[in-house]
């Protein structure tokens, strides 16, 4: 490169970029060239601003859609509660179905506390039959390394990026092993169910 022309891309007097042209010979650019590239730089600012406004509008639409979906899901759960007094199965089922859909997850599960142990109350999704059979009726005493136990202790949500790297799986905890190797679970989030700050499930 021998001759270079650089033109600032300005928005409200602030440089947000640069357009540069190069010649391999010593060949100065003319005033007309400079004016032309300056026009392109101004048009680039318009394009950037239009894209920013479009993205902001789309983000607002997504937030509105998500809020509407959450309200609809809540309404569905309340509807099931009113139609099924004394029946927890349908309520748990619709809660898990909505939570799984809204969070773009593959599976959902709910465990209720029984003393120091937990028993499965509901599953959602196309979970492997072997996994469901093993844990549908089993009483679970959580391993301290399992997300279930961590939630019980902290009473806060626990997010596992990769269950294959979780200590419970590495120690071959039965639930962790079947979750990963039978059900194919990789990422997991576990949220406590609290009543007056007492853990009743997750």
Describe what this molecule looks like in 3D.
This protein is of the alpha+beta class. The protein folds into two domains: 3-59, no CATH class; 106-201, Beta-Lactamase (2-Layer Sandwich), CATH 3.30.450.40. It is 48% helix and 24% strand. It has six helices and nine strands. The strands form four sheets. Strands 3-4-5 form a three-stranded antiparallel beta sheet. It has a two-stranded antiparallel sheet with strand order 1-2. The model has no long low-confidence stretch (mean pLDDT 85).
What is the count of DSSP helices, taking H or I runs of 4+ residues?
6
- Give the total of domains: 2
Instruction: Please tally the β strands and state the result.
Output: 9
- Coarse structural class: alpha+beta
Going across the major beta sheet, what is the strand order? Answer: 3-4-5
Secondary-structure blueprint:
Blueprint: E1 3-11, E2 14-23, H1 31-83, H2 88-102, E3 108-114, E4 117-124, H3 129-136, E5 139-140, H4 147-154, E6 158-160, H5 167-170, H6 174-182, E7 188-190, E8 193-195, E9 198-201
Antiparallel strand pairs: 1-2, 3-4, 4-5, 6-7, 8-9
List keywords for this structure.
two-stranded antiparallel sheet; elongated; single chain; Beta-Lactamase; 9 strands; three-stranded antiparallel beta sheet
